[in-house]
Design brief:
This protein is α/β, with parallel strands linked by helices. 40% of the residues lie in helices and 17% in strands. The two termini are 34 Å apart. A hairpin with a 2-residue loop joins strand 11 and strand 12 (340-345). The structure holds pyridoxal-5'-phosphate. Residues 106-108, 111, 140-142, 192, 196-197, 225, 227-228, 253-254 line the site of pyridoxal-5'-phosphate.
């Protein structure tokens, strides 16, 4: 591989807004679940671009869709519709509860649309007083001002002036607290069917059923934010399928484009009817290039082989992490579903998740964190078994350095 060192990490600080603090190495190439940096050093990718690269890097089906569409038609705006967008919407609606799709460019935008739709639906049907949105502490719904305020970490929304109003938070898995807060004023409850950024936290089945019942009782919409859990991540196309609960609105992004930016909001025809022409929109949303790639991703992800493969890989990961834990005693819990796995550090290593991330990168494996105490793994859904073995061997070397 040819070296290109003319651009370096130090340059980042000279030209970029400092809201990110990226790693020191700069990746330049990816193939499957392997990535190479400028120096030619190779990494196993267990991060998957934060649960985005569901088919790894440069999957042939994606490259084919991108180049074919790239030679045909890139962009029109929503003054015109396009074939890939309609085909993708047909696939998404035939595979889920939904009957209507709104395309956006990111998870935050999909949630922004979901929340605006919920408010408009409530206004149309019940009047101005039904505007309360309830979400859960530690939840993450994106970084627009509405979505970050709805998210359950005030630190992310503080310091930007007056926040959007009528937004309340209760603890995840605390049905009694939710019941106490809900009333006829509640317009929507938004939840991740498994909290990702908040620490890979699974809800109890009774909790999810209870949330649905409370929404029904108070005529409130249930919004599932499946931006991270969706599109095969848990071993189901969408996590709601396994919970026995159907939301009214679902947001999806991240893995939807496999690395090409796209988001979508799915809902029923009756609810969708409240977003009349002109009420909401996006210049790029439903862009033919993005939709052509997402369609190709869908065709690979939504197959019994891929989804069953996620479950097999989950087991392989969890068993291997448990074996590492038996040798080094660093985790107090290994949890998550499908290939959204969290390993919570013991009290002796509390607050040190980022040290593990950095040590792992030094050993040639990319991992994520979910808060200060949880190491998170969100690899490609089709990561080869051998890459899991090799990546975890490298991860164990990093663990040995920190805990040996
Ligand atoms: C990543 C994420 C988002 C935000 O998606 P962006 O594409 O970064 O805007 C929203 N909700 C959940 C659950 C996420 O994991």
């Amino acid at each position: 591989m040819s070296k290109n060192l003319s651009v370096q990490r130090a340059d980042f600080d000279e030209v970029m807004v400092p809201n990110y603090n990226p790693a020191n190495m700069i990746p330049v190439k990816g193939e499957g679940s392997r990535v190479w940096d400028q120096e030619g050093k190779e990494y196993v990718d267990f991060a998957g671009g934060i649960a985005v690269n569901c088919l790894g890097h440069c999957h042939p089906a994606m490259v084919k869709a991108l180049t074919e569409q790239g030679n045909k038609l890139w962009h029109l705006s929503n003054v015109f519709t396009n074939e890939p967008a309609i085909r993708l919407a047909q696939k998404l609606t035939s595979a889920t509860f939904a009957e209507r799709v709104y395309f956006a460019n990111s998870g935050a935008e999909a949630n922004e649309a979901a929340l605006k739709l919920a408010r408009r639906w409530a206004l149309d049907n019940y009047g101005e007083t039904k505007n309360q949105i309830i979400s859960f502490n530690k939840s993450f719904h994106g970084r627009t001002f509405f979505t970050v305020t709805v998210g359950g970490q005030a630190a992310y929304s503080d310091g930007f002036g007056p926040k959007p109003g009528a937004i309340e938070h209760v603890d995840y898995n605390d049905l009694a607290a939710l019941e106490q807060l809900m009333s006829e004023k509640t317009c929507a409850v938004i939840m991740e069917p498994l909290q990702g950024e908040g620490g890979v936290i699974t809800p109890s089945a009774e909790f999810v059923k209870g949330v649905r019942e409370l929404c029904d009782r108070h005529n409130a919409l249930l919004i599932f934010d499946e931006v991270q859990t969706g599109f095969g991540r848990t071993g189901h196309l969408y996590a709601y399928e396994a919970l026995g609960v159907t939301p009214d609105i679902l947001s999806t992004a991240k893995a939807l484009g496999g690395g090409f930016p796209i988001g979508a909001m799915l809902t029923t025809a009756a609810i969708a009817s409240h977003l009349k022409p002109g009420t909401h929109g996006s210049t790029y949303g439903g862009n033919p290039l993005a939709c052509a790639v997402a369609e190709a991703v869908f065709d690979v992800v939504n197959t019994p082989e891929t989804l069953a493969g996620v479950k097999q890989r989950e087991q392989q990961f969890k068993e291997a992490l448990a074996a590492i834990n038996a040798r080094y005693n660093i985790f107090k819990d290994i949890r998550g579903q499908g290939l959204l796995i969290g390993a919570e550090l013991t009290d002796a290593f509390a607050g040190k998740s980022r040290d593990f991330l950095n040590a792992a990168a030094d050993e040639g494996v990319m991992v994520l964190v979910a808060g200060p105490n949880v190491i998170r793994f969100t690899p490609s859904l089709i990561i080869p078994e051998q890459d899991i073995v090799e990546g975890l061997a490298r991860f164990e070397r990093a663990v040995a350095k920190l805990a040996g």
